[in-house]
Amino acid sequence: MSSSASEQPRGDQVWSSSSPPRSSTPPPQPLVGGLIESLSFRSCGFGRAAVSAFEKEDLRARAALPQRLRAAVHAALRAKDPSAGAFAYVAGNVAARGGRGGGGGGGGEVSAANPWFEVAHDDAPESPLVAFVNPRSGGRLGPVLKTRLQELIGEDQVFDLTVVKPSDFVQYVLGCLEQLADAGDHSAKSIRHNLRVMVAGGDGTVGWVLGCLGDLYVQNREPIPPVAVIPLGTGNDLSRSFGWGASFPFGWKAAAKRSLYKAIFGSVSCLDSWHIVVSMPERRDEEEEELDFPHSLRNLGECTFYDDGTAEGELPETVSCFDGVFYNYFSIGMDAQVAYGFHQLRDEKPFLASGPLSNKLIYAGYTCKQGWFFTQCISDPELRGLTNIIRLSIKRLDSSEWENIPRGFVEAQSDDGLLEIFGLKQGWHASLVMVELISAKHIAQAAAIRLEIKGGQWRDAYMQMDGEPWKQPLDHEYSTFVDIKKVPYPSLIINGGDR
User: Which one of 56, 314, 382, 412 is CB 3.0 to 4.6 Å from 442, fit for a cystine?
Assistant: First the structure.
């Protein structure tokens, strides 16, 4: 996968990325979708407004959930209880039938014990779709895009990520549909099975949603809804890799409509994902600043670190552990430091983030301000921070043994399905890599990685995964460990280049 800029302790950068998956063969084009793309309605006497109205009506017909199910899932969200949706569902059915029961499943009064148990509707849309929007992404384009998506597929099916977390969607919305499906509602069963998810945001937002949907594997609640992308971030590497573009175009109203059709009809590919665990010594100074990890990392609390012979530094008896999943890249070094500073600046002065272009200009300026472009390659390595990484260990494919990797550069080789480890020397090097004029320095390929980091003169290391940076505190006495290994199940992403 390609990568967007990130941050780290001053100096060289070490980052890892997974290779882009191969796309599957796109399905046959549906008739109506093909007509919309290939016919000019204007020659038949229809104006642009008529075409737009037809497309909007077609999208609603394909994607909109029945009213009773929309009411049910939102009731489950409000109550934070998937079973609460059933009561709203029953109330809607009873009102629609004038207070009498007996749906399509077989007449009679609604059962008092399980009033939704006998229903058997068949009004599911052929391509049910919901959307998540990050209003903080894309130079604050998120709020107006949210309104546009609500116009196209319905207000109840577009979720603001500052209000509804994807983990809540998985637990309560999908849980509600599963309960109604088990109770006999054919439409709920069809929607749960065929549902697709659109995510409007940057790489970090897409990863957040993919990670929460991946929990369905662990909970044995398949199938997993595939994800489509509207790129609103600064780098949008994941979006580029799957044909959704490097940024959202200026003609965003029409683009939103096209993106929804692509989400409905696009083929689905599997995407490798990587589980990361950060094990850090317990913090002893209560006056230190509060940890501010991204939402893609969750706190596992206190745990025991088991050394299997790879550790070189001192180990504490107990450590604090954080884990998460990344899909595109993890990096540590100066690029992560730049990304962290950029995010802080954007949060403090949101008026500066007026769009993707201004974001990139600010990012470039912040990079120069941090001195990345002016650090000499021959300068003392202590000034560049990577001497804190006292050991880099990997496991090769089909091997259970850790192998110590000396910090040096080897010629790049590519194998699909492995984690690639690269090094970038300076800002100018990273910039030329990102525009594909030169290649990054390849260090190794691995099925698993362990980084051991010990604080020397540096009290913090800057890290990021999929564009979400954080400042990782280091301990002068004890080591901090970063472990990365492949998640045993794939994530599903829709190909945006099919149509």
Answer: 412
Integer Cα distance of 202 and 407 in angstroms:
32
Given a contact cutoff of 8 angstroms between Cβ atoms, the answer to whether 106 and 217 are in contact is no
The overall pTM is greater than 0.70: yes
CA distance 20 to 263: 19
Which CA distances in Å does 1 have to 117, 168, 331?
47, 29, 13
Task: Cite the DSSP H helix spans in 64-103.
Answer: 67-79, 85-96
Would you list the domain boundaries of the chain? Answer: 50-92+116-266, 274-374+381-489
Amino acid at 67: Q
Q: What is the mean pLDDT of residues 363-371?
A: 54
The answer to whether the beta carbons of residues 472 and 8 sit under 8 Å apart is no
> What are the strands of the beta sheet with 129-133, ordered from one edge?
158-160, 129-133, 196-201, 227-231, 491-494, 268-271
What's CA 110's distance to the chain center, in Å?
A: 42
Task: Determine contact, residues 354/26, Cβ cutoff 8 Å.
Answer: no
When the pLDDT of each residue in the chain is averaged and rounded to a whole number, the result is: 74
Q: Tens digit of pLDDT for each residue in 69-115?
A: 999 999 999 999 998 888 776 665 555 555 444 443 333 333 434 45
